[in-house]
Automatic annotation (TrEMBL):
A Pfam family it matches: QueC
UniProt keyword terms in alphabetical order: ATP-binding, Ligase, Metal-binding, Nucleotide-binding, Queuosine biosynthesis, Zinc
Catalytic activity: 7-carboxy-7-carbaguanine + NH4(+) + 2 ATP = 7-cyano-7-carbaguanine + 2 AMP + 2 diphosphate + 2 H(+)
GO biological process terms, semicolon-separated: tRNA queuosine(34) biosynthetic process
Biological pathway: Purine metabolism; 7-cyano-7-deazaguanine biosynthesis
Native organism: Pacificimonas flava
Keyword Translocase applies: no
Protein name: 7-cyano-7-deazaguanine synthase
Positions annotated to bind Zn(2+): 185, 198, 201, 204
Keyword Zinc-finger: no
Entry EC number(s): 6.3.4.20
Length: 223
């Protein structure tokens, strides 16, 4: 389970448990701007009774190319979001890199199901959140591994893929996820030693929109 500590991945982990799986939780510390999510990932791993939680350092800031891994500013919303323009918060090939590492651990551990909380509806236009990317990676996993060569298929499970953010909020509520313990914001605001969601980046606005449209209270602490 690729576990960032966000609402999506935490709900995805709860879904994996509901599906009857034991969870090996993998969090990538890629020197992201919103590193506070690593603490949320630890909470999420505990909440889903992860058999093991690995936090793997993999510093993508040495490449840059994203406002999450460099000094580029995080865009703050004007109330409009488009999936036709890939925003600067896109981290080059991030999900390809992350799934490759997850695949390596899965093969070593004898696991054949890999969960990732990608979402193709209410998202920020990232190409590595699309169904065709997931299908392509499954095909790659079959060709790139000893297990695949021996006829053992890997399945990339994406229980949130076809849900909008309201649907994800409802699923989180139904699965008993503590949404207030998750972290979404790309550009945290520190106030009195406490990290708060900025409330203005795409991630924050999509998160809040989801709770509102689901008819659920938003437990997020915003600056």
């Amino acid at each position: 389970m690729l576990l960032s500590g966000g609402l999506d991945s935490t709900t995805c982990a709860a879904s994996a448990r509901a599906d009857g799986f034991d969870v090996l939780a993998l969090t990538i510390d890629y020197n992201q701007r919103h590193r506070v999510e690593l603490e949320a990932a630890a909470r999420a791993a505990a909440a889903c009774d992860a058999v093991r939680h690995v936090v793997l350092p993999l510093d993508l800031s040495v490449f840059g190319g994203s406002s999450l891994t460099s000094d580029m500013p995080v865009p703050k919303g004007d109330g409009k979001m488009s999936d036709s323009v890939i925003p600067p918060t896109y981290v080059p090939a991030r999900n390809t890199v992350f799934l490759s590492v997850a695949l390596a651990w899965a093969e070593a551990a004898g696991a054949r199901d890999i969960y990732i909380g990608v979402n193709a509806l209410d998202y920020s236009g990232y190409p590595d959140c699309r169904p065709e990317f997931i299908r392509g990676f499954e095909s790659l996993a079959e060709k790139a591994t000893k297990a695949g060569d021996e006829g053992e298929a890997f399945r990339i499970r994406t229980p949130l893929l076809d849900l909008d953010k309201a649907g994800i909020a409802r699923l989180a509520d139904r699965l008993g996820v503590d949404a207030g313990a998750t972290w979404t914001c790309y550009d945290p605001v520190m106030r009195g030693g406490e990290a708060l969601h900025c409330g203005r980046c795409d991630a924050c606005r999509l998160r809040h929109k989801g709770f509102v449209e689901a008819g659920l209270p938003d437990p997020t602490r915003y600056a």
